[in-house]
């Protein structure tokens, strides 16, 4: 006897979860479900990329709150015994820390060029339950999770926009952007044109530990953005974070939530009970997170943080830099006033007035215009009049809200401990305390937040990149990536 549960998040849904077949000789189930999301694409021209669903499975013995990560079948990455839907591809990602012969999750995406909504029916994933200590006749509950991602292809790109302020990157002391052309080791600082320098750290709140006079080494293992990776299309929504909390023990959950009062009002966006979590505004970006929250969620989901170099690649793409540009590719931001919302706080929240035409749009939580809290993930794509890249606030690749909404937590190159970051992915398993796994302690440096700075506004601005803040704040959200299989 088996009971199945389904999970859905912003703009993407899992439904009709069933155990299709069981092979007791080889200890596996085929888990079947339907998968849908909106505004999907695949193109072989211009950006040459696609969006995808990152899908993973959690399981627990019936009526016991002890959810664990399911081991999916893995051989060489593509399909691996899974059954792809008509018109789709399944690409399995293995465990980068642990049993490398098991799959942590799969990417599911179009098998040919196209645009529009996705409805993949009867997707089947092979769960090797024997590897997870589950018996043939155990009574098990499962929960299938999906996160929208965007593929960022391998290739060279530039960092810095030539402005020479806010600690921006440059080639030596030339003031010109620097080209990332491989994942090889780099020399940071100095005046040589082949070095990744930083305009002598002008106007940074806290300076890098390298400058024109002092050099450091950025190891080859540090993710530089040259290799292909998948980036979350949106920031983590309140609904996604609530699903995460609902699959933790009470002890684990206690460190991942907090009662935060402002003017005697609890502003933390999620309420929790013994076995559940309820978001105030499910489709809005999750805020009031600290670095330990970010690390725990990404570990649980089998993802990882992005480096600040990957942030510039995810945002600018392969285009030449534009001085003071935002995520939408120019320096024009609509700053006239506060947007007027309709269906406020629901999954249908849209902007009905105040949106700028032929200019960039973004909601800034802490400065300029906007609401004091995040808006619905992807709201500008739904509300834009002409749906240009500028009006939707999209990055070169179609990733949303890399400028605006919540601050992006990224790994800095300007601190020695942060340069130990080698891009390990989470393995789906947290410590009993609710913190990310022990093996990530040195790689992500997650508890103290040292090495995890912020990007949010102009693509190349590094003003807050060395600001280590371990506290929760209304401006702090979550976004993860994963190196492409």
Describe this structure in words.
This protein is mostly beta strands. It folds into two domains: 3-152; 157-485, no CATH class. Helix content is 10%, strand content 29%. The chain has seven helices and 27 strands. It has helices spanning 238-246, 250-256, 291-300, 308-316, 379-383, 389-392, 441-444, and strands at 3-6, 12-23, 28-42, 51-61, 68-69, 72-73, 88-94, 102-110, 114-127, 140-152, 157-159, 170-171, 178-180, 186-188, 196-197, 216-218, 229-232, 261-262, 265-266, 270-272, 277-279, 306-307, 340-342, 350-353, 408-411, 452-455, 481-483. Strand 2 (12-23) and strand 3 form a beta hairpin. It is globular and about 65 Å long. It starts with a strand and ends with a strand. The model has no long low-confidence stretch (mean pLDDT 91).
- Helical run tally: 7
Radius of gyration: 22 Å
Uncertain regions spanning at least 5 consecutive residues: none
Category by helix and strand content: mainly beta
Strand content: 25-35%
Number of strands: 27
Integer average pLDDT: 91
Total domain modules: 2
- Main beta sheet: 9 strands, mixed
Overall shape: globular
Distance separating the two termini: 35 Å
What fraction, in percent, of the residue positions are helical?
Answer: under 10%
């Amino acid at each position: 006897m088996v009971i199945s549960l389904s999970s859905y998040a912003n703009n993407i849904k899992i439904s009709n979860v069933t155990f299709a077949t069981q092979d007791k000789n080889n200890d596996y189930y085929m888990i079947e479900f339907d998968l849908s999301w909106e505004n999907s694409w695949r193109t072989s021209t211009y950006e040459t990329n696609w969006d995808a669903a990152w899908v993973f499975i959690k399981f627990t013995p019936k009526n016991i709150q002890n959810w664990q990560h399911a081991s999916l079948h893995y051989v060489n990455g593509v399909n691996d015994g899974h059954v792809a839907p008509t018109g789709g591809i399944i690409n399995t990602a293995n465990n980068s820390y642990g049993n490398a012969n098991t799959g942590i999750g799969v990417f599911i995406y179009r098998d040919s060029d196209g645009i529009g909504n996705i409805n993949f029916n009867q997707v089947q994933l092979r769960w090797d339950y024997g590897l997870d200590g589950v018996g043939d006749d155990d009574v098990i509950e499962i929960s299938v999770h999906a996160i929208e991602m965007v593929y960022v292809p391998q290739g060279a790109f530039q960092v810095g926009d030539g402005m020479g302020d806010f600690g921006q990157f440059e080639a030596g002391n030339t003031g010109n952007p620097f080209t990332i052309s491989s994942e090889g080791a780099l020399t940071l600082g100095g005046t040589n044109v082949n070095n990744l320098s930083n305009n002598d750290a002008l106007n940074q709140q806290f300076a890098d530990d390298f400058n024109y006079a002092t050099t450091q080494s950025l190891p080859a293992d540090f993710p530089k953005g040259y290799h292909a990776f998948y980036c979350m299309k949106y920031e983590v929504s309140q609904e996604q974070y609530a699903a995460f909390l609902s699959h933790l023990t009470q002890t684990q959950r206690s460190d991942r939530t907090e009662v935060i009062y402002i003017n005697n009002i609890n502003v933390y966006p999620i309420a929790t009970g013994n076995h559940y979590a309820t978001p105030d505004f499910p489709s809005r970006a999750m805020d009031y997170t600290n670095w330990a929250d970010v690390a725990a969620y990404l570990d649980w989901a089998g993802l990882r943080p992005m480096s600040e170099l990957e942030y510039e690649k995810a945002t600018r793409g392969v285009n030449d830099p534009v001085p003071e540009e935002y995520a939408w590719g120019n320096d024009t931001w609509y700053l006239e006033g506060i947007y007027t919302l309709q269906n406020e706080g629901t999954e249908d929240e849209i902007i009905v007035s105040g949106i700028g035409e032929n200019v960039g749009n973004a909601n800034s939580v802490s400065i300029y215009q906007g609401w004091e809290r995040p808006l619905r993930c992807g709201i500008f794509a739904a509300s834009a009049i002409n749906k240009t890249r500028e009006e939707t606030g999209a990055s070169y690749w179609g990733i949303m809200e890399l400028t605006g909404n919540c601050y992006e937590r990224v790994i800095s190159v300007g601190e020695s401990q942060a340069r130990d970051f080698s891009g390990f992915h989470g393995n789906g398993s947290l410590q009993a305390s609710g913190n990310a796994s022990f093996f990530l302690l040195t790689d992500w440096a997650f508890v103290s937040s040292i090495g995890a700075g912020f990007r949010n506004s102009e693509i190349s601005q590094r003003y807050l990149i060395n600001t280590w803040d371990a506290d929760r704040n209304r401006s702090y959200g979550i976004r993860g990536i994963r190196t492409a299989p």
